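Hi W.,

Here's what went into the run:
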Amino acid sequence: MEYTEKVIENFSCPKHVGELEDANGVGQVGSPACGDIMKIFLKINDQEVIENASFKTFGCGAAVASSSMATDMIIGKSIEEAGKLKNSDVVDALGGLPDVKIHCSVLAAEAIQAAIQDYKNKKA
Amino acid sequence: MKRIYLDHAATTPVDPAVVEVMVSSLKDNFGNPSSVYAEGRAAKKSIDAARAQVAKAINADPREIFFTASGSEADNWAIKGIAMKNQAKGNHIITTKIEHHAILHTCQYLEKHGFEVTYLPVDKDGLISLEDLRNAIREETILVSIMFANNEIGTIEPIKEIGEIVKEKGIVFHTDAVQALGNIEIDVKDLNVDLLSVSAHKIYGPKGIGALYIRKGLPIDNLIHGGGQERKKRAGTENTPEIIAFGKAAELASEQLETNINHMKTLRDQLIKGVTERIPKVRLNGHPQKRLPGNANFCFEYIEGESILLSLDIIGIAGSSGSACTSGSLDPSHVLLAIGLPAGIAHGSLRLTIGKSTTPEDIDYVVDNLVDIIQRLRAMSPIDADNPIDSAVFDKADHHHH
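Here's what came out:
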């Protein structure tokens, strides 16, 4: 599997692994495409800005790297901005993903959206 | 960094002695073996010698050995050649759910062309039931093909007993012995087989050369038509250097068989013991005793296989997995599904296959690091005992094919 250095880096030393104790938005998605599962935890403050984010992932190198990068990219963003994160943004940040692994980046974007939705549901 | 190669089931490094004869042949033995003059005769002589070496490795007559470009070609030839030759007699083939794709996809191809195929199930250890086999045989059955040893989980099938049942009914019996050669004693006179496939690159020979054993007198159609090579049964100017290499590899495999088996078995058991004792929530796939001497296949709960491989590769260890992420398809390995593993468990598989130059220190290094790797991946995973894999995630990964 041809992985970029950034992917290997994000796989070997991923950022933001684990559960957030005080998470108020949690989303878990699974991909039948290859059996990856991603869970994203968000700590969103009263200004609806993502103060902190973390992930737990069951999946291949690309899946771990995608969730690591994606969580890193949304910290400090408003939930509106974070909700607009596209999978291609994640792929670009990683320096590219093999074609067969693009769906991992899609899953990361979807997991973030699911977490944001969870926060909104809880608020309502 | 020293590399520790533990994927011998996928391919093997070429033995230096084999490289030597192959290079020498490339340099000095270019003649077309069908030609009348000296260069041709020299090439033909080398090929005959190599044929005898391969024959000896399985206790066959040299005239029963036919060279092919691969084990896959030998498998294709056996299935299609017998199917085509016997289609007036019948159209039913019996094989198993855990065969290599060279057998399975060939059978699926024939299913689209008027043949019926029964894929025998296996038990949780990967063994077929002799009773199932007996019950599957019908009037129209013209071929049974069952692999000698499985490449993924290492299980060794009872080929001699299967052969007895099949031959009693006068049906042709083929076995894919690609993984068995060099790891198990093979004696075609004892096994009740009519056809047997082997491949050089699994026994420290080069890629690009295999062979099909065809019992003397067995009628079979050609797969490759053309010139009269291989006694008119398999056309194509002979690949002299690779044939000679295969011969040398087969000779070494025979000479070293007992030594290699004992060496691999010891290390395999050391590996299995280390992993199962030090890592929780792990299972060994395949039959605990009736397994290839160098094969260890594990499933680690809560994590995925490719990430294990990547972690191993980064520290110099080469292994393989049956996860969907590694196969590039929707499903994990058909073999792991066939032995009854749920897809979520099958995704967390790791196959390590030991070779003749693996050392005990290599095994220690692997086990020590695996402990850490599995721990790290589990800490990253949303799946654990309290949060099992949602089966809905894997509803596509069901064993409806094959």
